[in-house]
Amino acid sequence: MNNLIKTFVLLLVLVSAFSCKQDSDTTHEEILSKNTVTENYNISILLDLSDRISLQKNPNPTMEYYQRDLGYIKWVSEAFTQHLKSKRIRQIKDKMQLFFNPEPQDPEINSISQKLKITIDKNNASKELLNSINSNYALQTSKIYNSAIKDNNFIGSDIWSFFDSKVKDQCIENGDRNILVILTDGYMYYESTKMKEGNRTSFITPELIKKNSLNTKDWEEKVQNGDFGFIKANDNLSNLEVLVLGINPSRANPYEEKVIKAYWTKWFTEMKVKRFEIKNADLPSNMEKIIKNFILEKQ
Description:
By secondary structure, this protein is of the alpha/beta class. It is built from 10 helices and 9 strands. Residues 1-21 form the signal peptide.
């Protein structure tokens, strides 16, 4: 009888141990699976090549605004390559691209922009390619700004229309983490897309802010009660994150910055943008952490 009891107890121990091992293996596999899943990035950069970068109209002795843009683009590019290098080769399927709206009339600029549409996957990923992305983006974007400034024919930036007709097709891929970085001073104006519906507009300028008496301390109450803001350009951008860099309000109105940010915030919120941040123009050295955190932090 004692032998029978011992055998029974031994069987219970073995069954229990086997069960625990199965649970342990399953948990280990689940954890391993979660740790090896990495997102594919689809990063887009939208350049505002309006007269905000004009050396004559908007000079800045500390650092010209186009040079700040180039610094911001450098950090975006570095964040992209840092993300790529954190993945196994077989997991890589990521994109980075650059847009204007409207397209510049200079064919050279459009040709350069094509070189900045990068798609990297397991078939073309190499150490040489990954190491060349940052220098290539720096060189080519510098050519774009130098050409635009030399041409000195600033036709404006139609950001509203880009969100209306292009952002879903060009900046959003199903299953990817879609990030749009916009380099702009915060003002929007393009003659062919100038629309007004009540107190909603497709543009914002210092003149409009002044005309609507949004240059006083009660500007926020007026915006809310009068329903001032941008006309909604899209219905559901819940798969898009947006980082706006370079807000540069007129110094003539102490409330200008807050009004501009209120317009953009209301616009993104109504279009159901997943996540957004709106940052002022600053020296690139002060923006590295902000830009890289936005792009690289886990969602």
